[in-house]
């Protein structure tokens, strides 16, 4: 059963020859097309590929100088904790902070803190904070975050979606009874002012944050993200961003923005000139880098990375419209198809293995280099990881077919010769100035299958103890080949044409495989093949090889 299968496969390979690579290429192209149209893997960001490119950028855009982060760091937790105790502090601390920031003429105040619960033990503290927000909010823009809870909780919520701050209809199919599970700040003045948006940001499957949303859509209602609302305010214009997330254009490692410790601000002298210069007209984001408050995330540029600086980066990207854009999926699909087509051509045309390897490596370098260049200098992500993967897969399969399937075709050729019961062998011996010692298997397969494509049943002649590949042994820079003929082919004008075609085939393949080799003598003999010789290919090969060498020696002596 197994022998029959191998024989069948060998016959099919012999029939296809180098076209087997064409079949593999066609299958690969169909898979790529299906990927682009259905699976859409090209639209998914390859974390490792993107992260490598982002960290290899020669430079990163400078952080927007208008953004300043007020940091609740470990030092502040310790220092302010001496007066107010452990975190969370009473909201009166943030009331004092708002008054201080107004004194320094801050333009916008952004809280990266959830005020999700009332302080039942210190209600006066909540009142002081609410009064400060109501008063200062008349002159300074103050932003508070909302948090979207799991959609599974929407039915339990009593908050109408359309009643939430910033809600707007995207079409006429909005549900009037739609509700949404959210966490709102427990600050009445903040709800009245309406400067609220969703702070939600979600990591990729590997837990790394690479994207930030422009918007959030729920049952026909649309909301700007927190960064979108603040970034457009900072830019003082509507940016017209699409309804999707974007890749963050990181400004550098953690602490690339200007930071002020909250304790240094609250406990500074009454009128600090350096703080005035830093905070005047600034957009201030209040958040924490303290590990104890657990707002540290994984990002491509560093782990851990402060969550407050992720928000600052998103605001910066939107305000300056320099977030990283992704190329459409068809660009990556085209690159993958081109990669496969070029490799397929190289295998089909029987280029040297060394040449194919070099071109394969070069194409990988070119694709990765283009992706790096576009990301580094144009903030444009060419997701060529899929193209490289498809190219590598095709390369591996084509290599395996060359090493495993094509030898089956060679064995099928020997069976074909034996079964055809040839009456004669046209023996061609060549003396050349340089016998190639590399790529012997490659030469043999290209010779056999190119011959099959031309209708020429050709085999190199080997001695029984020779394992130098099917190029055959060299004897004083000599190569010997044989074409097996029927009685009809061995007679008359047909023999002359066959002889010319066979010699042209050998010389053309030799020139392709070893351009430096030059033939300076040849000998062609027609030798009768006995019935006993047909049944023993090894003995036949030895006899034909000896005959070819003897004829070549005689030709060279003349």
Strand tally is: 20
Q: Which sheet architecture does the biggest sheet show?
A: 7 strands, mixed
Mean pLDDT: 83
Structural class: alpha/beta
Task: Give the helix tally.
Answer: 18
Distance, first to last CA: 55 Å
Total individual domains: 3
Which strand-content bin applies to the residues?
15-25%
Q: Summarize the amount of helix as a percent range.
A: 40-55%
**Segments where pLDDT lies below 50 for 5+ residues?**
462-476
Radius of gyration: 38 Å
Overall body shape: elongated
Topology:
Layout: H1 2-16, H2 19-39, H3 47-55, E1 67-72, H4 74-84, H5 92-103, E2 108-111, H6 123-136, E3 141-148, E4 168-169, E5 182-183, H7 188-193, E6 196-198, E7 211-213, E8 215-218, E9 221-224, H8 226-235, E10 245-247, E11 258-261, H9 262-266, H10 273-279, E12 283-288, E13 296-297, E14 305-306, H11 307-320, E15 325-326, H12 329-348, H13 353-378, E16 380-381, H14 385-420, E17 424-432, H15 440-453, E18 458-460, E19 478-485, H16 492-513, E20 519-528, H17 531-534, H18 537-557
Walk me through the structure.
The chain is of the alpha/beta class. It folds into 3 domains: 17-55 and 326-403, no CATH class; 67-321, no CATH class; 421-557, Alpha-Beta Plaits (2-Layer Sandwich), CATH 3.30.70. 48% of the residues lie in helices and 16% in strands. The protein has 18 helices and 20 strands. A hairpin with a 2-residue loop joins strand 8 and strand 9 (221-224). Helix 2 (19-39) runs antiparallel to helix 12, helix 12 (329-348) runs antiparallel to helix 13 and helix 13 (353-378) runs antiparallel to helix 14 (385-420). Residues 462-476 have low confidence and may be disordered.
């Amino acid at each position: 059963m197994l022998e029959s299968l191998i024989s069948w496969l060998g016959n099919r390979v012999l029939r296809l020859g180098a076209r087997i690579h064409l079949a593999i290429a066609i299958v690969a192209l169909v898979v790529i097309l299906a990927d682009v149209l259905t699976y859409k893997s090209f639209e998914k960001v390859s974390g490792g590929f993107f992260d490598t490119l982002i960290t290899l950028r020669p430079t990163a855009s400078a952080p927007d100088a208008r953004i300043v982060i007020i940091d609740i760091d470990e030092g502040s937790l310790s220092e302010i904790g001496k007066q107010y105790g452990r975190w969370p502090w009473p909201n009166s601390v943030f009331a004092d902070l708002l008054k201080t920031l107004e004194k320094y003429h801050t333009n916008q105040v952004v809280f990266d803190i959830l005020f999700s619960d009332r302080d039942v033990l210190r209600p006066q503290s909540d009142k002081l904070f609410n009064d400060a927000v109501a008063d200062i909010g008349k002159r300074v823009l103050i932003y508070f975050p909302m948090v979207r809870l799991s959609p599974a909780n929407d039915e339990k919520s009593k908050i109408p979606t359309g009643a939430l701050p910033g809600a707007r209809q995207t079409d006429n199919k909005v549900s009037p009874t739609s509700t949404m599970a959210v966490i709102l700040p427990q600050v009445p003045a903040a709800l009245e002012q309406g400067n609220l948006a969703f702070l939600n940001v979600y990591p990729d499957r590997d837990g790394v944050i690479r994207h930030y949303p422009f918007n959030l859509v729920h049952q026909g209602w649309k909301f700007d993200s927190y960064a979108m609302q603040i970034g457009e305010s900072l830019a003082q214009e509507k940016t017209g961003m699409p309804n999707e997330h974007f890749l963050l254009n990181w400004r550098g490692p953690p602490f690339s923005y200007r930071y002020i410790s909250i304790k240094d601000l609250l406990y500074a002298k009454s009128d600090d000139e350096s703080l005035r210069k830093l905070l005047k007209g600034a957009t201030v984001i209040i958040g924490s880098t303290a590990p104890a408050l657990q707002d540290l995330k994984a990002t491509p540029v560093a782990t851990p990375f402060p969550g407050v600086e992720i928000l600052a980066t998103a605001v910066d990207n939107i305000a300056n419209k320099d977030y990283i854009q992704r190329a459409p999926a068809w660009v990556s699909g085209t690159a993958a198809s081109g990669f496969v087509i070029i490799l397929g051509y190289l295998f089909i045309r029987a280029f040297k293995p060394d040449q194919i390897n070099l071109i394969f490596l070069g194409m990988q370098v070119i694709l990765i280099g283009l992706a790096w260049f576009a990301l580094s200098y144009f903030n444009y992500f060419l997701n060529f990881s899929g193209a490289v993967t498809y190219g590598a897969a095709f390369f591996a399969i084509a290599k395996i077919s060359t090493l495993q399937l094509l030898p089956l075709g060679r064995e099928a050729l020997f069976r074909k010769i034996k079964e055809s019961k040839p009456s004669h062998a046209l023996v061609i011996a060549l003396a050349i100035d340089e016998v190639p010692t590399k790529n012997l298997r490659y030469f043999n397969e290209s010779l056999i299958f190119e011959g099959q494509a031309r209708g020429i049943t050709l085999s190199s002649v080997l001695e029984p103890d020779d394992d130098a590949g099917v190029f055959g042994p060299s004897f004083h820079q000599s190569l010997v080949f044989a074409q097996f003929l029927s009685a009809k082919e061995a007679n008359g004008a047909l023999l002359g044409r066959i002889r010319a075609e066979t010699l042209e085939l050998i010389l053309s393949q030799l020139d392709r495989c070893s351009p430096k080799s030059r033939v300076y003598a040849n000998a062609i003999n027609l030798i009768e093949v006995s019935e006993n010789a047909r049944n023993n290919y090894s003995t036949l090969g030895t006899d034909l090889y000896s005959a070819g060498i003897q004829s070549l020696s005689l030709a060279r002596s003349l």
